[in-house]
Amino acid sequence: MFKQWRRRRAIQRVRPGDGLPLKRFRWWQPLIRSLFYLPSDEGAGRSAVYAVDVHHLRSETENGNIGAHLYRDGRRQARAELPTIFTVEGGTIEVIATTFGLRRCHYVTDEGAEQQLVPDPRSGEGRRARLDREHPVLSRWISAFSLIVLLGALLLTLPQLAESLSRIPPVAERWGTFTSPLDLPLWSTIVLAVSAGIASTERAMRLRYRAWLDEG
After folding, report:
1. Tens of pLDDT, residues 50-68
2. How far, in Å, CA of 143 to CA of 73, rounded?
3. Span 116-139, mean pLDDT?
4. Among residues 71, 98, 72, which one has the least CA distance to residue 83?
5. Is the pLDDT score of 179 beyond 80?
6. Residue 137 DSSP SS3
7. Which has the closest alpha carbon to 108: 125, 95, 123?
8. Phi and psi (nearest 5°) for 67?
9. 162 exposed, middle or buried (CB, 10 Å; 0-12, 13-18, 19+)?
10. How far is C-alpha 162 from the chain's CA centre?
11. What are the alphabetically sorted keywords of the record (predicted)?
12. Rounded to an integer, what is the distance from CA 139 to the centroid of its chain?
Protein backbone atom coordinates (compact mmCIF):
# COMPACT_ATOMS: atom_id res chain seq x y z
CA MET A 1 0.00 0.00 0.00
CA PHE A 2 2.78 2.44 0.93
CA LYS A 3 4.60 1.65 -2.32
CA GLN A 4 1.47 2.39 -4.35
CA TRP A 5 0.98 5.66 -2.45
CA ARG A 6 4.55 6.74 -3.21
CA ARG A 7 4.03 5.83 -6.85
CA ARG A 8 0.88 7.96 -7.08
CA ARG A 9 2.70 10.84 -5.40
CA ALA A 10 5.56 10.59 -7.90
CA ILE A 11 3.15 10.67 -10.85
CA GLN A 12 1.23 13.60 -9.35
CA ARG A 13 4.42 15.70 -9.27
CA VAL A 14 4.51 15.84 -13.07
CA ARG A 15 3.57 19.16 -14.69
CA PRO A 16 3.16 19.99 -18.38
CA GLY A 17 6.19 21.18 -20.31
CA ASP A 18 6.52 24.35 -22.36
CA GLY A 19 7.77 22.88 -25.65
CA LEU A 20 11.24 24.42 -25.38
CA PRO A 21 14.00 22.56 -27.25
CA LEU A 22 16.51 20.35 -25.45
CA LYS A 23 19.83 22.16 -24.98
CA ARG A 24 22.95 20.34 -26.13
CA PHE A 25 25.25 18.88 -23.52
CA ARG A 26 28.22 21.15 -22.78
CA TRP A 27 31.78 19.95 -22.14
CA TRP A 28 31.81 21.44 -18.63
CA GLN A 29 28.59 19.77 -17.42
CA PRO A 30 29.50 16.08 -16.71
CA LEU A 31 29.39 16.48 -12.93
CA ILE A 32 26.36 18.77 -12.70
CA ARG A 33 24.01 17.42 -15.36
CA SER A 34 22.62 14.00 -16.28
CA LEU A 35 21.07 13.34 -19.70
CA PHE A 36 19.54 9.99 -20.66
CA TYR A 37 17.68 8.82 -23.76
CA LEU A 38 14.95 6.27 -24.44
CA PRO A 39 15.25 5.38 -28.15
CA SER A 40 12.19 4.83 -30.29
CA ASP A 41 10.88 1.27 -30.63
CA GLU A 42 8.30 0.77 -33.36
CA GLY A 43 7.77 -2.83 -32.27
CA ALA A 44 6.66 -1.64 -28.84
CA GLY A 45 4.49 1.13 -30.29
CA ARG A 46 6.88 3.91 -29.28
CA SER A 47 7.78 6.05 -32.26
CA ALA A 48 9.22 9.02 -30.37
CA VAL A 49 12.66 9.48 -28.83
CA TYR A 50 12.46 10.55 -25.19
CA ALA A 51 15.14 12.30 -23.16
CA VAL A 52 15.38 12.86 -19.41
CA ASP A 53 17.42 15.92 -18.41
CA VAL A 54 18.47 16.55 -14.79
CA HIS A 55 20.47 19.58 -13.62
CA HIS A 56 21.83 18.66 -10.19
CA LEU A 57 22.53 22.25 -9.10
CA ARG A 58 19.23 23.73 -10.27
CA SER A 59 16.27 23.81 -7.88
CA GLU A 60 12.90 22.86 -9.31
CA THR A 61 10.88 24.03 -6.27
CA GLU A 62 11.11 26.62 -3.52
CA ASN A 63 12.27 23.98 -1.03
CA GLY A 64 15.41 23.41 -3.08
CA ASN A 65 14.61 19.98 -4.53
CA ILE A 66 16.01 19.26 -7.98
CA GLY A 67 13.81 18.19 -10.85
CA ALA A 68 13.79 16.25 -14.09
CA HIS A 69 12.61 17.43 -17.50
CA LEU A 70 11.13 15.01 -20.03
CA TYR A 71 11.66 15.75 -23.73
CA ARG A 72 9.78 14.11 -26.59
CA ASP A 73 11.57 14.34 -29.93
CA GLY A 74 13.67 17.20 -28.58
CA ARG A 75 10.83 19.25 -27.10
CA ARG A 76 10.07 19.61 -23.40
CA GLN A 77 6.90 17.67 -22.71
CA ALA A 78 6.86 17.52 -18.91
CA ARG A 79 8.78 18.46 -15.79
CA ALA A 80 8.67 17.31 -12.19
CA GLU A 81 10.35 17.41 -8.81
CA LEU A 82 12.32 14.26 -8.02
CA PRO A 83 11.62 11.45 -7.42
CA THR A 84 9.11 11.22 -10.22
CA ILE A 85 7.48 8.92 -12.76
CA PHE A 86 6.81 10.07 -16.33
CA THR A 87 4.15 8.28 -18.34
CA VAL A 88 5.14 7.42 -21.93
CA GLU A 89 3.92 5.02 -24.60
CA GLY A 90 3.94 1.47 -23.32
CA GLY A 91 5.07 2.24 -19.79
CA THR A 92 6.72 4.78 -17.51
CA ILE A 93 10.13 6.36 -16.90
CA GLU A 94 11.20 6.34 -13.24
CA VAL A 95 13.77 8.91 -12.10
CA ILE A 96 15.29 9.03 -8.61
CA ALA A 97 18.20 11.22 -7.48
CA THR A 98 20.77 10.97 -4.70
CA THR A 99 23.13 13.50 -3.17
CA PHE A 100 25.77 12.61 -5.75
CA GLY A 101 23.74 11.99 -8.92
CA LEU A 102 21.04 9.59 -10.06
CA ARG A 103 20.36 6.14 -8.71
CA ARG A 104 17.55 5.29 -11.09
CA CYS A 105 16.60 6.36 -14.61
CA HIS A 106 14.72 3.37 -16.01
CA TYR A 107 11.94 2.64 -18.48
CA VAL A 108 9.39 0.22 -17.00
CA THR A 109 6.92 -1.38 -19.40
CA ASP A 110 3.27 -2.00 -18.57
CA GLU A 111 4.20 -5.68 -18.20
CA GLY A 112 6.85 -4.89 -15.57
CA ALA A 113 10.02 -5.35 -17.64
CA GLU A 114 12.57 -2.57 -17.17
CA GLN A 115 15.66 -1.17 -18.83
CA GLN A 116 18.05 1.63 -17.98
CA LEU A 117 17.94 4.61 -20.31
CA VAL A 118 21.00 5.30 -22.47
CA PRO A 119 23.28 8.09 -21.15
CA ASP A 120 24.42 10.88 -23.43
CA PRO A 121 28.00 10.01 -24.48
CA ARG A 122 29.23 13.43 -23.35
CA SER A 123 27.75 13.12 -19.84
CA GLY A 124 29.58 11.73 -16.84
CA GLU A 125 27.43 8.62 -16.99
CA GLY A 126 28.13 8.24 -20.70
CA ARG A 127 31.88 8.61 -20.29
CA ARG A 128 31.85 6.09 -17.44
CA ALA A 129 29.85 3.63 -19.56
CA ARG A 130 32.35 4.04 -22.41
CA LEU A 131 35.23 3.32 -20.04
CA ASP A 132 33.45 0.15 -18.96
CA ARG A 133 33.03 -0.98 -22.57
CA GLU A 134 36.53 -0.12 -23.78
CA HIS A 135 38.55 -0.92 -20.65
CA PRO A 136 36.52 -3.44 -18.61
CA VAL A 137 39.42 -4.50 -16.37
CA LEU A 138 40.27 -0.91 -15.43
CA SER A 139 36.57 -0.24 -14.90
CA ARG A 140 36.28 -3.13 -12.45
CA TRP A 141 39.34 -1.92 -10.54
CA ILE A 142 37.87 1.58 -10.24
CA SER A 143 34.54 0.15 -9.08
CA ALA A 144 36.26 -2.00 -6.47
CA PHE A 145 38.38 0.93 -5.25
CA SER A 146 35.27 3.11 -4.83
CA LEU A 147 33.61 0.39 -2.78
CA ILE A 148 36.70 -0.04 -0.59
CA VAL A 149 36.94 3.72 0.02
CA LEU A 150 33.30 3.92 1.11
CA LEU A 151 33.52 0.85 3.33
CA GLY A 152 36.68 2.23 4.92
CA ALA A 153 35.05 5.60 5.53
CA LEU A 154 32.04 3.87 7.07
CA LEU A 155 34.18 1.77 9.42
CA LEU A 156 36.16 4.82 10.54
CA THR A 157 33.01 6.86 11.10
CA LEU A 158 31.05 4.31 13.15
CA PRO A 159 33.13 4.62 16.37
CA GLN A 160 32.84 8.41 16.30
CA LEU A 161 29.10 8.15 15.71
CA ALA A 162 28.78 5.72 18.61
CA GLU A 163 30.67 8.14 20.85
CA SER A 164 28.39 11.03 19.90
CA LEU A 165 25.26 8.96 20.52
CA SER A 166 26.54 7.74 23.87
CA ARG A 167 26.85 11.34 25.08
CA ILE A 168 23.10 11.93 24.75
CA PRO A 169 21.95 12.28 28.41
CA PRO A 170 19.30 9.49 28.45
CA VAL A 171 21.71 7.11 26.69
CA ALA A 172 24.62 8.04 28.95
CA GLU A 173 22.50 7.56 32.09
CA ARG A 174 21.34 4.10 31.03
CA TRP A 175 24.40 2.61 29.33
CA GLY A 176 27.25 4.99 30.08
CA THR A 177 29.46 6.78 27.58
CA PHE A 178 31.68 5.31 24.90
CA THR A 179 35.06 6.73 23.92
CA SER A 180 36.14 6.11 20.35
CA PRO A 181 39.55 4.48 20.05
CA LEU A 182 40.10 6.61 16.94
CA ASP A 183 40.96 10.29 17.17
CA LEU A 184 41.32 11.46 13.60
CA PRO A 185 42.96 14.86 12.99
CA LEU A 186 41.00 17.47 11.07
CA TRP A 187 43.01 17.04 7.86
CA SER A 188 42.38 13.31 7.92
CA THR A 189 38.65 13.83 8.36
CA ILE A 190 38.57 16.24 5.42
CA VAL A 191 40.51 13.85 3.17
CA LEU A 192 38.19 11.02 4.20
CA ALA A 193 35.08 13.07 3.42
CA VAL A 194 36.39 14.21 0.02
CA SER A 195 37.45 10.68 -0.92
CA ALA A 196 34.06 9.29 0.06
CA GLY A 197 32.32 11.98 -1.99
CA ILE A 198 34.40 11.14 -5.07
CA ALA A 199 33.71 7.43 -4.60
CA SER A 200 29.96 8.02 -4.25
CA THR A 201 30.00 10.20 -7.37
CA GLU A 202 31.73 7.42 -9.32
CA ARG A 203 29.09 4.95 -8.17
CA ALA A 204 26.31 7.38 -9.09
CA MET A 205 27.71 7.55 -12.63
CA ARG A 206 26.98 3.82 -12.83
CA LEU A 207 23.60 4.27 -11.09
CA ARG A 208 24.81 2.16 -8.18
CA TYR A 209 23.36 3.01 -4.79
CA ARG A 210 23.01 1.71 -1.24
CA ALA A 211 21.55 4.12 1.31
CA TRP A 212 23.74 2.89 4.20
CA LEU A 213 26.88 3.21 2.06
CA ASP A 214 26.46 6.12 -0.37
CA GLU A 215 24.60 8.50 1.94
CA GLY A 216 26.64 7.70 5.04
Report:
1. 999 999 988 776 667 789 9
2. 34
3. 97
4. 98
5. no
6. helix
7. 95
8. -135, 175
9. middle
10. 28
11. Membrane, Transmembrane, Transmembrane helix
12. 19
